[in-house]
Amino acid sequence: MAAEGGGKEMNEIKTQFTTREGVYKLLTHSEYSRPNRVPFNSQGSNPVKVSFVNVNDQSGNGDRICFNVGRELYFYIYKGVRKAADLSKPIDKRIYKGTQPTCHDFNPLTATAESVSLLVGFSAGQVQLIDPIKKETSKLFNEERLIDKSRVTCVRWVPGSESLFLVSHSSGSMYLYNVENTCGTTAPHYQLLKQGENYAVHTCKSKSARNPLLRWTVGEGALNEFAFSPDGKFLACASQDGFLRVFGFDAAELHGTMKSYFGGLLCVCWSPDGRYIVAGGEDDLVTVWSFSDCRVIARGHGHKSWVSVVAFDHCTTSVEDGDPPAEFSGSDEDFHEQIHFGTGRDRANSTQSRLSKRNSTDSRPVSVTYRFGSVGQDTQLCLWDLTEDILFPHLPLSRTRTHTNVMSATSPPSTGQNTTTVSTTTTSNPSGTNGKDNVSNSSSGGNPANSLPSSLPRSNSLPHSNPAGGSTPNSHTGSSSSNSSSTTTTTTKGNSIMDSSFIATGVSKFATLSLHESRKERHEKDHKRNHSMGHISSKSSDKLNQLSSSRTAKADVAKTLGTTLCPRMEEVPLLEPLVCKKIAHERLTVLIFLEDCLVTACQEGFVCTWARPGKVGLLSSQNNPANSPSGTVV
What we know:
The chain is mainly beta and 634 residues long. It has 8 helices and 34 strands. A 6-stranded antiparallel beta sheet has the order 11-12-13-16-15-14, with no helix packed on it. Strands 25, 26, 27, 28, 29 and 31 form a 6-stranded mixed beta sheet that branches. The longest helix has 13 residues. The N terminus and C terminus are likely disordered.
C-alpha cells in the first residue's frame, strides 16, 4: 500500500509519459473546451464525446473536431500539434433545450470543405443530421420518439455508405436508418427476420419505405457501444448484461460471444486487421478476444475503476514473418477467406491487404505486436502492448523477436481510421508445436484454439526492457526522468495472493491480481472509492428488479465462469500496462489515436492533445501564450 498511498504524487496530474518509442507530451496550447475554459459541472450530465473528420482542405488544414459538453455542441478547425487552438472562433455552436447530445459521428465519404454530414444522438432518443459548416439541420429522426424513447448510446455511419446509419439505445435495441426515408407518424410495426440466442432482428412492416429499416434487440439491459470491423462486415456489441456479441452484419448472424468477468461491458474496439477485439467495463479490466478462435486470449489489469474507452493505436505496431506451427495453417487460411482487410471507405490498407494475401496463400501468419490504450473513471490513461508471447504462447520466446516502432500513417489522421505502414523483419523460426484444443463455432471455420501453456505469461512486455527514464508497469512516478532501475510496484490489498503457476522470476516487478472470488468484493469497494459515476440508466433505474433477479444473476455467473465465454483469472494471461498515468481530475471519456498525437477528454469538458515522440516541435513557438489555461493542466 506504500506506493498506492503516495499522497500528493499520486494525485498529481501528469503532463508527459515515456514509452519505448519516446516521450509523449501534453500540448497545453492545443487544448479544446468551451470558449470560457471554465470546467463544466459534470454532475448528472452525459459523457463528453469527440469526433474527427478530414475535409480534404487544399490548405492542408482539413481536420475538424466536434465535441459535446452538457447541452452544448461545438465544431472547430482542429490544428492538433501544428498550431494553438483558437476557441474564440468555433465554426458552429449549438445549445439544446430539453435534451442533451450523447454521441456523434461524421460521414468521411461525403465530407468536403464546403459540407459535412454529422449525426448527433440525444438523451431523449432522437437523432439529428446536421451540417455544421453550412449551419443547417437536415433531418430529425425519431422526432416523436415513436421508435424508441430511451437514450441514444452510440451512433455510427455504416462503413462505405453515404446514407445508412446505425443507432443503439439504452433500451438494448439498435435501429438501421436511411437518411432518405422518413420515420412515419405512427409507431412502426415489425416482422421477425432472424432470431438467435439472446438476440432478434425485425424488419419494419410498411407499404412505403420508412425508418427504421431494421430493429435489433440484443441481450438484456442497455447496449452501451458497438463497433464495425475494419472491413465493415462484422459488428461487435458491448452490452450492460456483460456480454460481447459479434455479428455478421449483412446476414445478421451471431459469430461469437464473450462474457465479462463481472458487471456490464461499456466499450469495445477492433484491432486494425480485424483479428482481435478489446472490450472494457465494470470489472475494471480490458479483455482481449480472438475473432478467429472466438475466445478470450488475455486480460489486462491496471485500472482501479470502470473502463470507459478502449482504442487501438494504428500507428504504433511491429510485424515480422516467421515459420508457424503446422496447426496454424488451416485456421489462418479459413479466417482470411472470411476477412479481407480493407477499410470499406476507399482507403484500403495496403499493409493489411499484404498480410491477408500472404497468410491465405502461403499459410504463414505474420506475428504483430499490437498497441492499444484505455481510459477510465479512475482518471487514468493506460497503454498496453499485445505481444507475441501472448498471441502465440507456444512459440519459444528465444526464437521470436518483437519490436515496437512508431510507424507513419498513410491515411488522414482525423478520420480515426489511420492505416499503418509496417516494416517487416524476416526471422528464422523452426516449426513448433501448438495446442490442439478446438473451440466449436459454426462461423469460425473450425479454427483451433491455442491451449494454455503450463506457465502463463504475466506481462505483455516480458521480452522488452524499459529505456532509461521509461515508465514501469503500474508505476506512479509520473515523470519521464524517473529512474527505471528503481521500480515502484503498485499493489492493492489482497493483490499478492497468487496461483502457484504464476510464481516465477520477476514476480516483484509486476502488480498481481487476486485469483480468488473475494476479488469481486474488492472491485466493488474500489468503484465506490474511486468516484465511479455509472451513466447507464438501466443499471440503477429499477432496484426492485435487481434484487429479485440477484439469485438468477449469480447462477448465470456460476454457469459462465470457467468456460470459454468467461475463463477464470488464472486460465488466461494477465497483461500489465506499459503506462498507467493519472491525467485528469474527472473521469475520462475519450481516447483517440491520430497520426501525430493522441487525444483524450474528461468530463469537465477539456479535450487534450498529446504529441507523439518527435512531433512536439511542430507546434509553432510563436503561438500566443495567452491561449494557455491558467493553473493545473488537466
